[in-house]
Amino acid sequence: MDTIEKLAILTDAAKFDVACTSSGVDRDAQLGRLGTTTCAGICHSFAADGRCITLLKVLQTNVCVYDCSYCVNRRSNDIPRAAFQPRELAELTMGFYRRNYIEGLFVSSGVIGSPDRSMELMLETVRILRDELGFNGYIHAKAIPGASPELITCMGLLVDRMSVNVELPSQRSLDLLAPDKSPYSVLEPMGLIAQGIQCNQQERALSRRLRERFAPAGQSTQLIVGASPEDDYQILSLSAALYRRFELKRVFYSAYLPVNDDPLLPDKGCLAPLDREHRLYQADWLTRFYGFEVEELISPQDPWLDTLLDPKAGWALAHLDQFPVEINRAPYEMLLRVPGLGVTGAKRICQARRQRTLRPESLRKLGLSLKRMQYFITCDGSYKAPLPFDGEFIRKQLQKEGSKANKAARGGGKRPLDGQLSLIDSGDEGRQRAFAAQEARLQRLEAARPRLEAARSQLEAARRSEAS
Question: Are 353 and 327 contacting, i.e. CB atoms less than 8 angstroms apart?
């Protein structure tokens, strides 16, 4: 099997893992090393003509000894299998970087032979990139549950971010759908990574000369939504516990895409629960940045988020006795709870009202939209919403606006089954077109090389002539 065929198989197999994001860290520039050192957004898609946007997301191998029911790479599936050798994947990554297709690498793997063997292959790939090829850009690596602490520690010293996927929100579902895994095998590496990050931060605080950094962009994890029967309250409660215990940078929620025929899973004809995934992200954001507790947004008695109304608006409508708030006097913490008002907007209001009394036109000048917040605020004692303060009316208006926004964002209500773009089109024709575009671009660069060399020689000759 040639490299192109492997790339097609292993990038397509990696698209179900959504736990990749911007690096969130600036690396120190080093003489003789390649790769951007500035904090930048790392995307994970390819345009139809082969242009990268801009992360190579790939599996080391999709060969796996585990038989997780929800995974397309489970050992009982009859699918094409492939594996990259460490040097092969490292050189492929550098080739893509030099052609300006990518800025970084996201690498994960199936469990080939054993967790330690899988980690060794990924570790060798990253080591070649860093030590031999001098790549200084962003790398995100997945830790394999069950791998030895030494391998995880070595990986953490080479990459920017690490992650370990929890996948399923309860031990019961893990036992049922992923019998080869255990909660301990998942949580142990998460604890090792968190401990490594904390110790490294303490050591760097004591010695500014220490250059080694352990996963400086932190760690993340992924939870699959819809493959198992857990409700939203269980999922958000688990996420909150993971944030507290392991100081995660991010929990990713992945709407389950029915890819396997299994009586324990939703039918393959079912749509991915994208609306539910979206509400979980919103609730997660509120608990991380807006001061909400999980129990304020959802409860064991009412354990499902409203798919027609965002969680902040749902909380506000359930606590109308605290609204409307006076925009000129409300504390910052209460402003954060006004639907339609974010962290930046609340800070702008707090700063501006020190100088003058704010009115609706003042908020517009601050760049704030009154479309949603108008139902929950007064400006200088005046309530500007179109009709009297009424909970049922407000709910209908917000649901109507939310429905329009979702329809526009999803192209008239059409919901894609696949949550990410593939590196290579699934058809042979699309695959050939993408690589033909890449090769054509490379040929243009090679053709331009003689002209660049000639221009450089002329410039050097002119400098020598001027100096003499």
Answer: yes
